[in-house]
């Protein structure tokens, strides 16, 4: 018995250095970025660090470009994630009921998720090219004019949403299908014996039982969606103008094109606040829905 405290001390002696290293690697950049956000620092041309307080935050909050990027990001994320969930859930239900060719579909549906977003954006840029793209060539076969998929603000946002749906719906399919396969079969067999319709089985059994999983899936996709940059950077570059510029692309332009490090750090923390607000509101609404179905 007297050896147990000694063994615990040895165990913690081995764990503590690794824990301290991970903590330092995680916290130091965050604290350093927070300090830099209260300064004016430029790399090109070199400008010495100068403490300016909340001036960077005030300038960003007073910028129409910042609020425009929030609107664009929210529009892309909310619309694409909503469609991803509905479409992914529907496909998962179809695969769960063993439609003809289900094995082939399970493999093919997952392929887009394994592609790099940059490669997906490059393929989409070729497909939706205003003049040479096969999508516009298809429309011209029916006597329609070429559509400005990448040169019109509304069409460009719709194109980005389409690409996000195509690439990340398989993620929803994968998780929802796993959830469906984990549901107890006895409940559904009893419902069939009672001649309950398929719609009522979905509304009263399947959806409520998968609601916690649905909340988690949508939350993951919302957080990941807010970080979108590579697809926008390659496909539209934030254009035309700044009509498709997201928050992350805005921060990239400030940091790696204007080399305004202080402004970029402040923008990053404002981005963090925006994500936390969206996440908090979503989880509050989701908790009310879960309690309602319990």
UniProtKB/TrEMBL annotation:
Pfam families the record matches: BPD_transp_1 (PF00528)
Biological process terms in GO annotation: transmembrane transport
Domain of life: Bacteria
GO CC annotation: plasma membrane
Gene3D superfamilies with a match to the protein in the record: MetI-like (1.10.3720.10)
PROSITE patterns assigned: ABC_TM1
Record key words, sorted: Cell membrane, Membrane, Sugar transport, Transmembrane, Transmembrane helix, Transport
Membrane-spanning parts: 12-35, 72-95, 107-128, 165-184, 205-223, 266-285
Domain ABC transmembrane type-1 span(s) in chain numbering: 70-282
Membrane topology: Multi-pass membrane protein
Classification via CDD domains: TM_PBP2 (cd06261)
Family according to the record: Belongs to the binding-protein-dependent transport system permease family.
Name of the molecule in the record: Multiple sugar transport system permease protein
Species assigned in the record: Litoreibacter albidus
């Amino acid at each position: 018995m007297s050896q147990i405290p000694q063994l615990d001390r040895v165990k913690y002696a081995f764990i503590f250095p690794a824990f301290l290293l991970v903590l330092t690697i995680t916290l130091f950049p965050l604290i350093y970025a927070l300090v830099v956000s209260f300064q004016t620092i430029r790399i090109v041309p070199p400008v010495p660090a100068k403490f300016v307080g909340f001036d960077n935050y005030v300038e960003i909050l007073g910028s129409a470009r910042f609020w425009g990027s929030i609107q664009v990001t929210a529009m892309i994320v909310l619309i694409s994630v909503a469609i991803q969930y509905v479409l992914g859930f529907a496909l998962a239900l179809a695969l769960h009921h063993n439609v003809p060719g289900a094995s082939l579909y399970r493999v093919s549906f997952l392929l887009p998720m394994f592609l790099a977003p940059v490669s997906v954006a490059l393929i989409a840029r070729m497909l939706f090219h205003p003049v040479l793209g096969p999508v516009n060539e298809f429309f011209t076969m029916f006597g329609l004019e070429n559509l400005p998929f990448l040169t019109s603000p509304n069409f460009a946002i719709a194109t980005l949403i389409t690409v996000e749906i195509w690439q990340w719906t398989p993620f929803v399919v994968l998780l929802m299908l796993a959830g469906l396969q984990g549901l107890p079969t006895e409940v559904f067999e009893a419902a069939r014996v009672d001649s309950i319709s398929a719609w009522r089985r979905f509304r009263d059994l399947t959806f409520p039982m998968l609601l916690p999983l649905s909340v988690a899936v949508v939350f993951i996709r919302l957080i990941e969606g807010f970080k979108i940059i590579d697809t926008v950077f390659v496909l539209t570059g934030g254009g035309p103008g700044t009509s498709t510029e997201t928050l992350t692309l805005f921060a990239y332009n400030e940091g790696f094109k204007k080399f305004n490090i202080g402004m970029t750090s402040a923008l990053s923390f404002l981005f963090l606040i925006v994500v936390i607000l969206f996440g908090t509101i979503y989880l509050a609404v989701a908790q009310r829905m879960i309690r309602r179905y319990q």
